[in-house]
Design goal:
Strand content: under 5%
Structural class: mainly alpha
Distance between the termini: 36 Å
Shape: elongated
Radius of gyration: 18 Å
Number of helices: 3
Largest sheet: none
Helix content: 55-70%
Number of strands: 0
């Protein structure tokens, strides 16, 4: 599937998400995942624009990542080497 994320929300947000899950006959996990995916999609263009404007990202080549790079097992893993 993907990477795991664990967080907490206030009781009002939890209650709303729980009610949506019941009404839509989905798990709370599915509702939370859909909300996070929608949020990420909504802000993706804004993030890409900011990255393109910041010369440091161009220098390190972040815009040249593979399209599905985040789905790899080693995504986000930093390998350190001693000098």
């Amino acid at each position: 599937m993907g990477t795991h994320l664990q967080t907490e929300v206030n009781s009002e947000t939890h209650d709303i998400l729980k009610m949506l899950a019941i009404l839509r006959r989905k798990s709370l996990k599915e509702i939370a995942r859909e909300a996070l995916e929608e949020y990420a999609k909504k802000h993706k263009k804004e993030l890409e624009d900011l990255i393109q404007k910041d010369s440091i990202w161009g220098t390190i080549g972040v815009l040249e990542l593979e399209e599905e790079a985040s789905e790899r097992e080693d995504w986000g893993t930093v390998e350190w080497q001693s000098e």
